[in-house]
Amino acid sequence: MIDVTKIRKDFPILKREVNGKPLVYLDNAATSQTPQQVIDVIVDYYQNYNANIHRGVHALSQEATDKYEVARQKIQKHFNAKNSYEIIFTSGTTHSINIVANGFTTLLEKGDEILVSAMEHHSNIVPWQMLAERTGAVLKVIPMNLEGELKMDVYAELLSNKTKLVFCNHISNALGTINPIEIIIDKAHAVGAAVLIDGAQAAPHVKADMQKLDVDFYTASAHKMCGPTGEGMLYGKEEWLNKLPPYQGGGEMIAEVTFEKTTYADLPHKFEAGTPNICGGIAFGAALDYMNAIGFEAIAAYEHELLEYATQELLKIEGLKIYGTAKNKTSVISFKIEGLHPYDIGSILDKLGVAVRTGHHCAQPIMDFYKIPGTVRASFSFYNTMDEVDALVAAVVRAKGMLE
Amino acid sequence: MQIKEIQDEIVDEFSMFDDWMQRYEYMIELGKSLPLINEKFKTDDNIIKGCQSKVWVHAELEEDKLVFTADSDAIITKGIIAILIRAFSNQRPQDIIDADTQFIDEIGLKEHLSPTRANGLVSMIKQLKLYAIAYQTQLN
């Protein structure tokens, strides 16, 4: 069970007011808030052992290197990767995806097919479109139904021996749908295709097991799971990471450099050119510690309660429609009120201290699918309360009254 | 009236409101009541794409003055457009180029002009100025 009163005390930002009202933070799918435990780790780094890593022989550098590598092991353990060097530190999911998309430039041929789901974030569409343009590969879309679930029968038909890559998010940022990635991965592997799962939205809610999933690539962003911005990870199976060429050249990623030829460093350093976000990596590890101490099962159960209650209460508002009604979904509610623009609702909600996201959520194809300009999206985290759900509903009712 | 005088007038009007509710209600009223643009000008060419709300702007030179018409699919955005049109339309291009938009801040609507890409307003003001520059060049 979650003791939400106790948990909220860990998050200094939740005490603040916005526009004279207590902050009701319901934009967790965009970024999560940071607990004091993680803030302390960030402060400790800059106060006590800030140094460049993997190079210096001095004490601070050793200490920073140790803590950074311990963080990598924490991430490995959390995602149950076989080896710690299969965890690449990145600036976030977008960076992670670009490493893979760039790497496949040398592995694809004209006419090869890559499949992408219809409910992707722009960051899991555009890099693949660019890859398709570079290589002459063909990008095909796995469609979804009106509830916001992937049409798995069509997916099965799209797969063939031409399919080289499949990418899909674990959980949709705009709809909250939890995709059946186990089946997606198994079916792709059956035709010899590699699979990248964008875990940016899933990682804060469910613990994904890399070995059990047998996934080829998986991504996560620290800032969506109580960690800092500008930090994330790419998991890649060793065999795949060895096949991919480096993404960026620079320091850290080399073994030996002469002007004639450079040999690349081993994993994971091959993909970690330049001085990384050292503090960010260490804080990412601390964020995982924090969330694991609460427990992902408890988090998922509580967030599900929030989802159910909020869904029930919001649907009482006349003219309100929820987009994304998959049977298996996480604590994200995307909605629109008939005749009202999401931007107008969001602007008034902000005045009432309620932070939500409005717009297309960087997933324009989804909005085109539903033929709407965008939605209002409330996304809940384990530190939100039932009272905050009530505050959201009251604010939406008030906005509706003002706008109609 | 000069742009600055109109802006001062708008600031005066808004100073009568006690809180944001009244300001927003006023803007929503403005947004609802004003026919802002001829439908035939609501073309893709005239659209300014913000991240969320669409804004259309059309400009026409009448003698030495530039007349703007505009619209948006979001009502609060439309209300602000009404305010901007009041301040900038029917003015000489050079005066539009020289004018600032500080008054938006003074009437408590600053957040709508933050560069968050949340609406097309920042781009809209830029577009008004670009039209003014283009027509000023013509007049020269």
From TrEMBL, chain A:
EC number of the protein: 2.8.1.7
Cofactor(s) this protein cannot do without: pyridoxal 5'-phosphate
Domain annotation Aminotransferase class V: ranges: 24-392
CDD domains membership: SufS_like
Reaction(s) the record says it catalyses: (sulfur carrier)-H + L-cysteine = (sulfur carrier)-SH + L-alanine
An example Gene Ontology biological process: cysteine metabolic process
One Pfam assignment: Aminotran_5
Keyword field: Pyridoxal phosphate, Transferase
Gene Ontology MF term list: cysteine desulfurase activity; pyridoxal phosphate binding
Protein name: Cysteine desulfurase
Natural source organism: Zobellia amurskyensis
From TrEMBL, chain B:
Protein name per Swiss-Prot or TrEMBL: SufE family protein
Family (UniProt): Belongs to the SufE family.
Record-linked PANTHER family: SUFE-LIKE PROTEIN 2, CHLOROPLASTIC, SULFUR ACCEPTOR PROTEIN CSDE
InterPro entries in alphabetical order: Fe-S_metab-assoc_dom
Ranges where the Fe-S metabolism associated domain occurs: 11-129
Native species: Zobellia amurskyensis
